[in-house]
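Narrative of activities, Objective 1.

The group set out to show that a structural description can be obtained from nothing but a protein's sequence at a throughput compatible with the screening campaign. Below is one input-output pair from the validation batch, recorded exactly as produced.
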Amino acid sequence: MMLPIIGITQGEEKGIGPEIIQKALSDHSLFKICRPLVIGKPTLFKFPKSCSVSIVPPLTSQTSSLGALKQAFFLWTQGKISAIATAPVDKYAISRQEKIHFLGHTGFFKKECEHYFKKSFYPIMFFVSGYYRLALATTHIPLSQVPRTITKPLLKKTILTVHKNLKTYFGINHPRLSILGLNPHAGEGGLLGMEEKNILHPIVLWAKRNHMSLEGPFPTDSYFSIYWRSVIPSFDATIALYHDQGLSAFKLKHFHHAVNVTLGLPLIRTSVDHGVGYDIANTHKANPISMIEAIKLASFLVKKRKSQ
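Output recorded for this entry:
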């Protein structure tokens, strides 16, 4: 059986992306499960002769990091790579130098897929570390926009996408999902906000009527200490309503080992669960474990898709 080709994008060239890629590909066990293809400026990498790694340069762009993403998507549309694993990029630097509104990989690949396939997609940021899985109902948006963004249609799409992917890729026949509340103490019966009463409780009932296991909404302040206390959490996936609500706890517990997976798109894309790391760039201190795990998970997901 042919090993999947995983396209690995360079990330921000002045950050730790090139370092963690180079360190990750020194783990020879990766070559037993995939064929890595680095997409980035060749001058950023110095692989030993014993490490058989091909490098494809970025497409022309104002920033090499965005050029690498464009190249990766092009290669995927041509069937040259099976999945994409991304190193971290600097959203502000890309936005400023490219003169675009760049909010991250998820939005970039959403637009590329919609343009290529001429249809709409609803991607979800999904984080994985062992048995721990976290979905975000919203992506990179200002906190002030979260309350009006949390709607019943959005939550239904989120729940259906997470439920389907847990069955398809993770072999969980009857996924157990939980959802967090928006307000302190999950609204305290409406005293601290009506979103739980008007939106979240009805969504839980909707899920159950549609034969999906969904519990909540849970107060965020106590949820993680209660339900994420053991080696295997109480639920197969947790749905957080916004970025910091879920990721503060997730990264505290799984910072180096977590992987970000984009659900809801035709392509398989994984990523490290950390930023560009300017403060430790060029110090040889960057930890490559999240990059290694991202490549491994991308390979696993490709094989699961082929087996369907």
